[in-house]
Amino acid sequence: MHIEVTAEPLDPQRAVELVRRDDAGAVVVFLGVVRDHNLGRRVLYLEYDAYPEMARRVMRELAEEAMGRWPIVDVAVLHRIGHLEVGETSLLVAVSSPHRAEAFDAAHWLVDRLKERAPIWKKEVFEGGEEWIEGELPSPR
Amino acid sequence: MHIEVTAEPLDPQRAVELVRRDDAGAVVVFLGVVRDHNLGRRVLYLEYDAYPEMARRVMRELAEEAMGRWPIVDVAVLHRIGHLEVGETSLLVAVSSPHRAEAFDAAHWLVDRLKERAPIWKKEVFEGGEEWIEGELPSPR
Amino acid sequence: MKARVLLFARLKDLAGVSEAEVEIGEGLTAADVFRLLQGLYPGLASYDAPLAYAVNARYVSPEHPVRDGDEVAFIPPVSGGGTCTSR
Amino acid sequence: MKARVLLFARLKDLAGVSEAEVEIGEGLTAADVFRLLQGLYPGLASYDAPLAYAVNARYVSPEHPVRDGDEVAFIPPVSGGGTCTSR
Q: Which residues does A17 contact at the CB level (< 8 Å), separation at least 6?
């Protein structure tokens, strides 16, 4: 399992290599990418803020939960923070498994949960202003 | 849309670049990888045979169908043929979309359909023998 | 009347060739052309798995008529992609 | 008794600080500490969105007791990942 919160650019080839194993026939990779518009506004760039130690813990716990729920082989979760331009990758999730259905299901589940629970925030800087985007309120469990 | 049947190694970073657009916030990539065992046998390597012109047509038709079924932005389908070692990538499917659920669903659907319909075959060379793997019988439609 | 025939995977190994030009009669179907090939390439007689047919790079039914100049491909069950299974 | 408090995203902008050491009384909950911070940093008084709480990097309920030396984080609704929406 590989967990990373970093200001460096994220590389999908590296994520594939982190999870690839000789006994896994399928790898599914998700990239969350900075879009050029949101809510009808033209986005100039994003700033990601995070509580890095806690974000890593939440990412690790969710990756462990995914590995318990599905017969997958390995998981990598990488989140970029700081200044991101349009087209850059903010989130990389890679899952390897013997069977492709599990890799798709586990990767999709992980992305949904990360967006609900990882203590990471984005500020959109658009033409004419900026705003912290507030999405999901995490709950204790 | 990008369709390729090639004897060259497949690169997931390139597949991401082929489908990434500034208005797509999600990219899902699937890699089919050569596994070191199958049906209880230790696999040494694979040989992929194809009917390349028809494989490209089937891949293009399925990619077009996916773009009609889901609000996705772009699709790349790349299949490698010839000699592949364990750990190498035989199939790369990349889908970009504004919404992640569609990218996951469309990529999964495309991989399932390609394995049913693309005129491509693999010969497994294992310890003690070799065998053409026969999977799905395509039907006209 | 001639057709170009294409053989893949196990069929190619059984026949010992991957493609050929064959003389065909009027009114033959794709399945008829395969039976004709089984006469020309005795190795094909032992092929007992299901078979699909393509004419000019499109899947067709076994009853599809073959015309002069057509490219007829005999398609064993396909197995592209990786070595993952679906579930 | 002291706690280290962490503020993120909009809370950080409203308070003008991202972390501080604060003196706390006995028996305060995570929610009590936030009310205390609203007194110390008046900008926080205008915060009206939902809020989650973490003590020592774990999510807790608003009623969770804060002890000496704890790290208390105030978590506005999160928005990590890309800019794709779920559907």
A: none
Nearest-CA neighbor of C53 among C37, C79, C34, C69? C34
Q: Is the pTM of this model over 0.90?
A: yes
**Residues near D16 by Cβ (< 8 Å), separated by ≥ 6?**
D41, D43
Q: Which two tokens stand for residue C34?
A: 């395969």
Could you tell me the residue ranges of all domains in chain B?
A: 2-128
Facing residues of C19 across strands? Answer: C6
Which residues of chain B are within 8 Å of residue C12 when distances are taken between CB atoms? 49
Domains and CATH numbers, chain C: 2-75 (3.10.20.30)
Q: Which chains touch C (3 or more CB pairs under 8 A)?
A: A, B
Q: List residues of D whose CB lies inside 8 A of any B CB.
A: 82-87
**Helix pair angle (B100-117, B52-69), 10° resolution:** 150
Residues of A in contact with D84 (CB under 8 A): 32-33, 35
Q: Give per-residue pLDDT as tens, B14-39.
A: 999 999 999 999 999 999 999 998 88
Question: Does A134 contact D at CB distance below 8 Å?
Answer: yes
**CATH class, range B2-128:** alpha beta
Condensed to tens digits (0 to 9), the pLDDT of residues D3-33 reads 999 999 999 999 999 999 999 999 999 999 9
Interface contact A101, partner C, CB < 8 A: yes
Q: Which residues of B touch D79 (CB under 8 A)?
A: none
Report the largest interatomic distance among the alpha carbons of chain A, rounded to a whole angstrom. Answer: 52
| Distance between first and last Cα of chain C | 47
**β-pairing verdict for A2-6 and A74-80:** parallel
Question: pLDDT category, A8, cuts 50, 70, 90?
Answer: very high
The shortest C-alpha distance from A80 to chain C (Å) reads: 30
- The tokens for B116 are 């049913």
Q: Considering only CB atoms, which chain D residues are within 8 Å of A137?
A: 50-52, 77-78
Residue D4 Cα to chain centre, angstroms: 10
Distance CA C6, CA B51 (A): 9
